[in-house]
């Protein structure tokens, strides 16, 4: 749409950017160095994604204006290099909100724009993909272990191991931790007669990951039909 900058064009040389994006993932994260922040994955009408952060001193200012699944106009944004592990997008930069950033209501982007891009199992298994980036996967659960409780950093944490298969019958190991483990275990108990479809991440990465069983998505319906 005229007047909006494409996400692909965002760079650090200025802050007066104006974008129209859907918040496809939102979570709050606490770290000793950064305190409580709001983390998001944004997508524009071209399907390009970028990570965005609201730092601790601005959380109260923006919290009520942000919600997963909503489309927003965002104006005046800081851009920094994206680096390190657990990167949610392939974009070279990530957004940081400023005190002068504005978030406005705008026309919704289509439902079909969801950012879901499942990767090929073989590329995961042979190490082709960059392990610093998080990925989406889709598959049928064919094996599942019992929930175990392991000590991680002195804290008891639930753990479950599953095996997924794709349309070519390639198998992919999957490990889920914390509440993801109990959620999937409970779903398996109540849906034994159904094929279960799992998406987003082959091992959950803290609160970043999203696990959905038989979600209503075009990609999932096509997978089930095959």
From TrEMBL:
One Pfam family this sequence matches: DUF223
Superkingdom per UniProt: Eukaryota
InterPro entries: NA-bd_OB-fold (IPR012340), RFA1B/D_OB_1st (IPR003871)
Domain Replication protein A 70 kDa DNA-binding subunit B/D first OB fold: residue ranges: 3-105
PANTHER family from the UniProt entry: OS03G0429900 PROTEIN
Protein name (database record): Replication protein A 70 kDa DNA-binding subunit B/D first OB fold domain-containing protein
């Amino acid at each position: 749409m005229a007047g909006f900058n494409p996400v692909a064009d965002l760079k650090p040389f200025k802050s007066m950017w104006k974008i129209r994006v859907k918040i496809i993932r939102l979570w709050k994260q606490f770290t000793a160095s950064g305190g409580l922040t709001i983390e998001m994955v944004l997508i524009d009408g071209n399907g390009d994604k970028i990570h965005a952060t609201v730092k601790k001193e601005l959380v109260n200012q923006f919290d009520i204006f942000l919600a997963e699944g909503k489309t927003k106009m965002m104006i005046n944004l800081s851009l920094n290099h994206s680096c390190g592990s657990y990167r949610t997008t392939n974009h070279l930069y990530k957004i940081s909100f400023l005190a002068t950033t504005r978030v406005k209501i705008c026309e919704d982007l289509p439902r079909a724009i969801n950012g879901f891009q499942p990767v090929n199992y073989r590329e995961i298994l042979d190490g082709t993909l960059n392990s610093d980036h998080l990925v989406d996967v889709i598959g049928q659960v064919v094996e599942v272990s019992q929930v175990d409780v392991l000590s991680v950093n002195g804290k008891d944490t639930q753990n479950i191991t599953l095996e997924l298969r794709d349309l070519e019958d390639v198998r992919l190991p999957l490990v889920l931790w914390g509440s993801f483990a109990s959620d999937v275990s409970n779903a398996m108990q109540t849906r034994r007669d159904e094929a279960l479809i799992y998406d987003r991440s082959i091992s959950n990465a803290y609160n970043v990951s999203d696990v959905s069983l038989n979600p209503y998505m075009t990609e999932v319906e096509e997978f089930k039909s095959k």
